[in-house]
């Protein structure tokens, strides 16, 4: 492994190399059996969408089973907690940091869509966190900002100016940093963050998280690894069952019971959304370790379009090449019949 990657504390089963046309990629150093856990990673930062901020705990990242949490940060009112322990942990970390002030102003920023705000929230958290817990992997991530279309850069202009002004006022910037550096970080987050989903609702994205070591894995439409998030503990003792309707006449049939959960739990419910990266099949030594960035059940043209649009690369994996060749051959045969 190159010396510059030693600091990232990857397991001995993984090495990182730079490959022409692919950039940085993870490579298996030995044969790895299927269903092997390669990495267990905690998020470096999380950013919860505004419309779900009361549903997800800002510290342990658990989801409220039925409604909303009531404990929140009194300074910014932008983050909510499942328990007093999570609230106290967050308050201790963010005391006198200026983070709350920026988050509150960001929430009220007008004419900015949800996507930009969610990325901007992670930018704020990274700038705040690097003051005491910097991670060199953030700098190692790849930015595509220079390749953003002009209209996309224009959409970000308001957020760019806001973050630049706020970070300067908070004295969070390094001596040589510019507003362009802030946008390069925004691009890194766009291309490398993972979605946070509501428990039992895998179709609802509730926020974003940056899992730094996991961001080193490249995409393949025939991936040999998969990612899985550990969501929360099943704390049955916190449930309270109540009649869903009035009992009515004593001779009436028994009524079903409705399960309710408190708005404040006695202890943290979450596992901080630990991410596990596991092999889905046997992997040979020197084989690239890959995950999927998109739904690989989509047609090849759609997959390539999404990857180019969201991740700024043209997928040339073996599966895409084979499916494209098959489609081209089929179209050629159809044209001959006409």
Automatic annotation (TrEMBL):
SET domain: residues covered: 12-294
Gene Ontology cellular component annotations, sorted alphabetically: nucleus
Alphabetized InterPro entries for the sequence: H3K4_H4K5_MeTrfase, SET_dom, SET_dom_sf
Database matches in CDD domains: SET_SMYD
Gene3D superfamilies: 1.10.220.160, 6.10.140.2220, SET domain
Top-level taxon of origin: Eukaryota
PANTHER family named in the record: HISTONE-LYSINE N-METHYLTRANSFERASE SMYD, POTENTIAL PROTEIN LYSINE METHYLTRANSFERASE SET6
Protein name as catalogued: SET domain-containing protein
Origin species: Hesseltinella vesiculosa
């Amino acid at each position: 492994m190159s010396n510059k990657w030693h600091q990232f504390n990857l397991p001995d089963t993984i090495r990182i190399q730079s490959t022409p046309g692919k950039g940085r990629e993870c490579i298996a150093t030995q044969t790895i059996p299927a269903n092997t856990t390669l990495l267990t990673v905690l998020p470096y930062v999380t950013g919860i969408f505004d419309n779900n901020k009361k549903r997800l705990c800002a510290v342990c990242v658990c989801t409220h089973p039925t409604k909303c949490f009531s404990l929140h940060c009194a300074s910014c009112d932008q983050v909510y907690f499942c328990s007093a322990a999570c609230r106290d942990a967050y308050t201790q970390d963010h005391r006198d940091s200026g983070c709350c002030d920026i988050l509150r102003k960001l929430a009220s920023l007008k004419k900015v869509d949800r996507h930009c705000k969610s990325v901007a929230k992670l930018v704020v958290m990274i700038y705040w966190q690097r003051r005491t817990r910097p991670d060199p992997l953030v700098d190692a991530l790849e930015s595509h900002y220079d390749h953003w279309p002009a209209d996309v850069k224009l959409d970000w202009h308001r957020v760019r100016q806001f973050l630049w002004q706020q970070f300067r006022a908070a004295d969070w910037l390094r001596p040589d940093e510019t507003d362009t550096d802030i946008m390069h970080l925004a691009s890194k987050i766009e291309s490398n963050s993972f979605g946070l989903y509501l428990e039992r609702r895998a179709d609802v994205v509730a926020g974003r998280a940056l899992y730094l070591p996991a961001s080193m894995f490249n995409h393949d439409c025939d991936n040999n690894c998969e990612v899985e998030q550990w969501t929360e503990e099943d704390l049955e003792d916190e449930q309270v069952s109540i009649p869903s309707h009035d009992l009515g006449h004593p001779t009436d049939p028994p009524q079903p019971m409705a399960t309710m959960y408190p708005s404040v739990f006695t202890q943290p419910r979450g596992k901080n959304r630990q991410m596990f990266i596991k092999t889905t099949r046997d992997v040979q030594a020197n084989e690239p370790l890959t995950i999927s960035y998109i739904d690989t059940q989509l047609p090849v043209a759609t997959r390539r379009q999404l990857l180019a649009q969201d991740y700024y690369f043209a997928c040339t994996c073996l599966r895409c090449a084979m499916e494209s060749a098959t489609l081209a051959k089929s179209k050629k045969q159809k044209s001959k019949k006409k």
